[in-house]
UniProtKB/TrEMBL annotation:
Pathway(s) served: Cofactor biosynthesis; coenzyme F0 biosynthesis
Protein name: 7,8-didemethyl-8-hydroxy-5-deazariboflavin synthase
E.C. code: 4.3.1.32
Organism name: Thalassovita autumnalis
Domain called Radical SAM core: residue spans: 37-282
Keyword Protein transport attributed: no
Names of required cofactors: [4Fe-4S] cluster
Superkingdom: Bacteria
Keyword Hydrolase: no
Catalytic activity: 5-amino-5-(4-hydroxybenzyl)-6-(D-ribitylimino)-5,6-dihydrouracil + S-adenosyl-L-methionine = 7,8-didemethyl-8-hydroxy-5-deazariboflavin + 5'-deoxyadenosine + L-methionine + NH4(+) + H(+)
Any Pfam family matching the protein: Radical_SAM
Top-rank EC class of the record's enzyme: lyase
Amino acid sequence: MTETVISTGAICAETGDLQTLMSHARAIRDQQWGRTVTYSRKAFVPLTNMCRDTCGYCTFVKHPSSPEANIMTPEQVLATAKRGEREGCKELLFSLGEKPELRYEAARAALAQLGYERLTDYLADMCALVLRETTLLPHVNAGTLTDDEIDVLRPVAASMGMMLETISRRLTRKGQPHYACPDKVPLQRLRTLERAGEKHVPFTTGLLIGIGESFAERLEALEAINAAHARHGHIQEVIIQNFQRKPDIEMANHPEPSLEDMLRTIAAARIILSPDISLQAPPNLSARHPAYLDAGINDWGGISPVTIDFINPQHEWPEIRSLSQSCADAGFELRERLTVYPRYLGADSTFVSPDLLARASDMAEASGLARQQQHLGELA
Ligand SMILES: O=c1nc2n(C[C@H](O)[C@H](O)[C@H](O)CO)c3cc(O)ccc3cc-2c(=O)[nH]1
Ligand SMILES: C[C@H]1O[C@@H](n2cnc3c(N)ncnc32)[C@H](O)[C@@H]1O
Ligand code: MET
Ligand code: SF4
């Protein structure tokens, strides 16, 4: 199966010559995206760290009995958003635990204190608050979503996302990272991808690499993402994220994926996925930027000048200026983008709700100008 990855010749993505594989991937990237690599300047809001799942790799999640368990108040959300706005951010990334109220009384109580029964309704109101009080565009990364949840979030989120993580059901068995995680059952993740497409939501997804999946399973997952995009055209970007070991997780002794493994996977993704899907790898999860560019990525994802990466808190964001320099050294221009990609911002787009569409289009236009001015400023 792995041999069908490249149509132009029989090269196996798993064991074939790495340089050949990467040069195929680069060629596709260069043709579609050129020598521009993008990022979104964002502020990160971990709305709650309570979650009904217990992924073996997650350091973010806290049991409701932990003193660190919390739901952010509207005041806290707004404070972060305002700080981001002052620092020139355009995206507010909400990343949070999934449906804790379905599992824990303490989560229901905390939500009730805020006046809510369902976390998603609170999330939607926090998106609305950010839209009302700031210039930021909300991006929601809240895991699996029902039809109704998408309907509630769609009017107030410019884009949404959920990592598919893996397509492997094996990883839901006892002793595996997704054991007893109802939201990490691959069929549920795939259903969310499909629903987002049916409802025309610009969508981010991706794979978590090195949690016990086989190489063939990664390719299968990429094929599934691509098939959903072929049906609906909604996948704006795919993230290839390397598992990061941390001392306080179940997988504290699980090996991290090697650089070569990451490069093979990134290149395979670029070759399998439709060229119009942006390919992203995070710049803070390794000092591997130039190699990732060589393997075919065109985006670094959200980079925050104001908040840490709450999901991988030990990894600092590269300063945007120094990232820009290292991209330039590799022959790429680093450019800012919005959370929603330009192709969903046409005047007759059905992918963004009307109010948000007008607003995001204006921002795209204005920031294009601002960018030019900034560039000229730097030259002066
Ligand atoms: O800072 C992070 N941003 C993460 N983001 C944010 C992402 O980098 C940007 O928000 C998007 O590229 C939109 O601009 C995610 C977004 C998703 O929709 C799904 C998963 C992720 C995962 C992360 C992550 O681990 N760390
Ligand atoms: C928001 C996303 O963060 C990713 N995520 C969660 N824990 C880790 C980790 N230890 N290393 C890398 N990525 C992680 C998951 O893929 C999740 O979907
Ligand atoms: C820290 S993970 C944040 C998003 C969601 N809980 C997921 O796993 O997909
Ligand atoms: S990765 Fe997401 S779903 Fe899994 S435990 Fe952490 S917050 Fe919950």
